[in-house]
Amino acid sequence: MHTLLVTNLPQKGEFIAKGLEYEQLPTDVRVYPTENLAEKALGYDAIFIYMKDLNHFEPIVDACFKYKNLPIIILAPEFDSLIVDYLRRDKRISNLFVRPFPFRLIAAEMRFQIFLFKEKMNNSTIKIRDLELNRESRELKFKNEPIYLRCKEFALLEFMMLNTGKILSRGTILENVWDRNANIMTNTVDVHINKLRKKIHKDNEHFIRTVPCSGYIFS
Question: Are the beta carbons of 87 and 57 closer than 8 angstroms?
Answer without folding.
Answer: yes
